[in-house]
Design goal:
About 60% of the residues lie in helices and about 0% in strands. By secondary structure, it is an all-alpha fold. α3 (about 55-70) packs across α7, α4 packs across α5 and α7 (about 135-160) packs across α11.
Length: about 260
């Protein structure tokens, strides 16, 4: 892969997203949200990659993965008016389908294309597949970290300004009741993976995001997230009561154990 490939991919993504325009202001806002997210993930993956001193060729690959990881979101929203995979389609699979349909990566070597496709297909899974080879695992970890870091930016900004305008799409159309499900709380407090189909309330979704503390792959990402206080900001928005206090106590116990040392370096 070379710079010309990446310039082509940047231009293609820009042109592709212009195909998805809506007359409705709320619909168009959701499209812009995903365009901005893509560019922020691209910036984050390059920042994390540079912190690891990877070479320019590797940075080109990483940038391409970031640019294409959510391509399927645009078709998904156009067809289903949702970003909720469980009631539409897996957006990572749509991304690969759209990239293949438009023959976007045909100029790449098979190995490069395979690495990109593998990272995209695994970026939104509850956990990385244990069968990934070392190189695929590295790039997938890069993309997952960059993606999570920006999702945390998006949701904390939204939670902070929610009273100004509610967006059920960001909330995955979940129940807005001021509560946390017992099953989700139990999974969270036991360090278990929280599945999307477990979520009932918007606050359950927040616990899923907080559980990402166990799924950060690189020290640099972890420090970046802590510096921006994303986890603290999410905890602040939880409903007052015993359940919130349990979440706070759990996070305090993680700090005591220095959870950062458990991340993959």
């Amino acid at each position: 892969m070379n710079k010309d490939n990446v310039i082509y991919f940047r231009n293609w993504f820009q042109d592709y997203t212009k195909l998805f325009e809506f007359g409705d202001e709320n619909d168009q806002r959701n499209i812009y949200l995903k365009i901005e997210h893509t560019y922020k993930v691209r910036d984050a993956i390059l920042e994390i990659g540079k912190s690891l001193n990877i070479n320019q060729q590797q940075l080109f690959l990483a940038e391409t993965m970031a640019l294409f990881h959510d391509v399927g979101r645009f078709f998904q929203y156009q067809k289903y008016k949702t970003f909720k995979d469980s009631i539409s389609e897996n957006h990572a699979e749509i991304s690969l389908r759209e990239l293949e349909r438009h023959q976007v990566m045909d100029a790449l070597m098979d190995e490069e294309k395979q690495l990109i496709e593998t990272a995209i297909l695994n970026h939104n899974t509850p956990q990385m597949s244990a069968t990934l080879d070392e190189q695929s695992r590295f790039y997938t970890a890069l993309l997952r970290d960059a993606d999570k870091s920006d999702i945390l930016r998006v949701v904390t900004s939204y939670y902070d300004k929610k009273n100004e305008r509610q967006n059920s799409t960001i909330e995955l159309e979940l129940d807005v009741k001021d509560d946390i499900s017992e099953t989700v709380l139990h999974s969270f407090l036991n360090g278990e993976i929280i599945q999307i189909d477990q979520l009932q309330y918007v606050h359950d979704f927040k616990l899923l995001q907080l559980a990402w503390v166990h799924d950060i792959n690189f020290d640099y990402t972890y420090r970046m997230i802590l510096q921006k206080q994303y986890f603290d900001k999410i905890i602040e928005t939880l409903p007052q009561g015993d359940k919130k206090q349990k979440v706070i106590d759990y996070f305090n116990s993680l700090k005591e154990k220095d959870i950062a040392t458990a991340a993959v370096r």
